[in-house]
Amino acid sequence: MTSSHRDLSDPSTDPFDVAADAAAVIAERTGVDHHDVALVLGSGWGQTADLIGETLATVDNADVPGFHKAAVAGHSGSMRSVAIGDTGRRALVFGTRTHFYEGRGVRAVVHGVRTAKAAGCSTIVLTNGCGGLNPDWAPGTPVLIRDHINLTAHSPIEGANFVDLTDLYTPRLRDLAREVDPDLEEGVYVQFRGPHYETPAEVQMAKVIGGDLVGMSTSLEAIAARQAGLDVLGISLVTNLAAGISDQPLSHAEVLEAGEAAAERCGRLLAAVVGRL
Ligand code: 8IG
Question: How is domain 3-276 classified at the CATH fold level?
Fold first, then answer.
């Protein structure tokens, strides 16, 4: 068996070896052995890559060790190498992510983060679509993630490795995002397992424990990023008010609509931040 066929779900496989294999394929397919910034585009963030700069190469996820096709409608099953304006720097843009609820295990969830590190990135930008707890945050509002609460009861870190999560969402990067958009809201992201949305009672619990946003991603990835020594910027797009906050039922169609409506503002924000990193 060649190294590129190592299976992430096999406990005898070192997930960092698979990330190194993935980075080697990315280098070969993109023609550059170093990327500077990685971005993970969640629900509603799909169009933002074009505003960062020119796409110089596209790689199918299925061709990269450890990656899978997209499981969510509206997500792209590929990654792109994008020129960051005319800075000479490159962004590695993941058009989709593996969610914990897909059942492939935590290693698969954080594989993109570890691959970004192996590809040379020093910063990762994690975006998502989420439910908002603040009734003043209309669908289409971008919110900077200040901190998170991980309710998955899992960790991407294996073994007795006690990683400090203080200032997990890099303060310098949050400052930079607020310089670009002084009106940017900030909040605490609560990751539930999903794939069902919360009950109204669970949303109230999230509020009581200090949450502002509810979603199904990002926290596990941010933890893996900290372990890898990456700086982390997290930005959520409120695509719906969380269950029970408004009297409207939740739907994935609503999520996609809010994303389209907010694409312009979110894209400009991300492009400006990435250009100034
Ligand atoms: I988009 O309301 C999106 N993702 N858990 N709750 C959770 N995840 C979400 C939601 C939401 N909206």
Answer: Rossmann fold (3.40.50)
